[in-house]
Amino acid sequence: MVQSSVTLSENLAKLDGVVPDHARGVATVVGCLGRVAAVIAKELAHAALRDRLGYLGGTNVSGDQVKKLDVWGHDTVEAAMRATGACAALISEEAKEPIEMAVDGANPLVVCCDPVDGSSNLDVNGTVGTIFSLRPTGGKTPAGPASLGPGTEQVAAGYVMYGPATTLVYTAGRGTHGFTLEQETGEFLLTHPDIKIPSRGKTYGINEGNLHSWHPGQRAYVEFLRTSDKASGRPYSLRYSGAMVADVHRTLLDGGIFMYPSDWTDPAKPKPKLRLLYEVAPMAMLCEQAGGRASTGTERVMEVKATEYHQRTAILIGSPDDVAMAEEFYRRQS
Ligand code: FDP
């Protein structure tokens, strides 16, 4: 077993040379999200006992049915971000517009967050997560989504996975590092320093129930992965949990590819599902920092600019050779 005594706070205290303009802001916000994660993990463990599962009624801005824990998670993250003094605005899956906050230092950040991702897993005791992305504001709250720039503007990104263990993985642009929550002390300890994704994997993750609505290149690629060829390690095994955090975490550690492509039923209007600012872009930064690749099928995810706060974007993410091969299938069928 990996025994580590480096805590998340100690690791965050060394960001000066990594993100010189935002070292304090990133350390404050990520440290705070770590403490929030410990609270969320406890709440999830007791949710069935406290009548906290199930729907609240109504839908959020993206049209998803809202669960009690989605709203509780959002309120918890909002209160915590407000208290940091380093967050000028919170863009959350559960709020239509950015929530502006008072700041008390230089170089505040915009925090984009999906407080409880994979919420269809909540009522079946499946894995869920929290995803976050930190972007500079230039001292002001964002003047529209375009002012946030592409994913390359992110100064830090990360996720928390609430599984058998609670794991926090983050990057501030110099490697991707994973920490595990020690329940007794409430500390996150460094257990996965400098994660390096294998150049190729053996698994793929995708909702195959949507097969008939995929781009022809996407269909051909999945058919290729399912076709036996011992020499190149096919067929790949299918792994899909229904929570992006769990599927990307597996992919980062073991390699392979996770995909949520657009619905291509109307080729003139492809419909992606996952949200750019607080799902797709942060995962792309984490994966690239681990040596991986993230693509929409035709474009590097990190270069996609938001035109709406809750914009949706297709994603194919994982081992560089696997993602490059998927892109090749899109090219051949274009
Ligand atoms: P969910 O809707 O349950 O919150 O964020 C969206 C997300 O989960 C991802 O975590 C997950 O990968 C995907 O949607 C699952 O979507 P499908 O149910 O369509 O497979």
Describe, in plain words, how this protein is organized in 3D.
By secondary structure, this protein is an alpha+beta fold. Helix content is 28%, strand content 23%. Strands 4-3-5-6-7-8-9-10 form an 8-stranded mixed sheet, with helices on both faces. A 5-stranded mixed sheet has the order 12-11-13-15-14, with helices on both faces. The mean pLDDT is 94. The structure holds 2,6-di-O-phosphono-beta-D-fructofuranose (FDP). 2,6-di-O-phosphono-beta-D-fructofuranose binds at residues 64, 117-120, 207, 242-244, 260, 274, 279.
Portion in helices = 25-40%
Secondary structure tally, helices: 7
**Largest sheet: number of strands, sense, barrel closure:** 8 strands, mixed
The shape, in one word, is globular
**Hetero ligands:** 2,6-di-O-phosphono-beta-D-fructofuranose
- What oligomeric state best describes the polypeptide chains here? single chain
For the secondary structure, the number of strands is 15
What is the overall pLDDT average? 94
Low-confidence stretches: none
Helix and strand pattern: HHEEHEEEEEEEEEHEHEHEEH
Strand order of the largest sheet: 4-3-5-6-7-8-9-10
C-alpha-based Rg, rounded: 19 Å
Distance between the termini: 48 Å
**Coarse structural class:** alpha+beta
In short:
This protein has 334 residues and is α+β, with helices and mostly antiparallel strands.
Outline the secondary-structure elements.
Layout: H1 8-12, H2 23-46, E1 55-59, E2 65-67, H3 68-84, E3 87-92, E4 99-100, E5 109-117, E6 128-136, E7 156-162, E8 166-171, E9 176-182, E10 187-192, E11 203-205, H4 216-226, E12 237-238, H5 244-254, E13 257-260, H6 276-289, E14 293-295, E15 315-318, H7 320-332
Parallel strand pairs: 3-5, 11-12, 11-13
Antiparallel strand pairs: 1-2, 3-4, 5-6, 6-7, 7-8, 8-9, 9-10, 13-15, 14-15
The structure holds 2,6-di-O-phosphono-beta-D-fructofuranose.
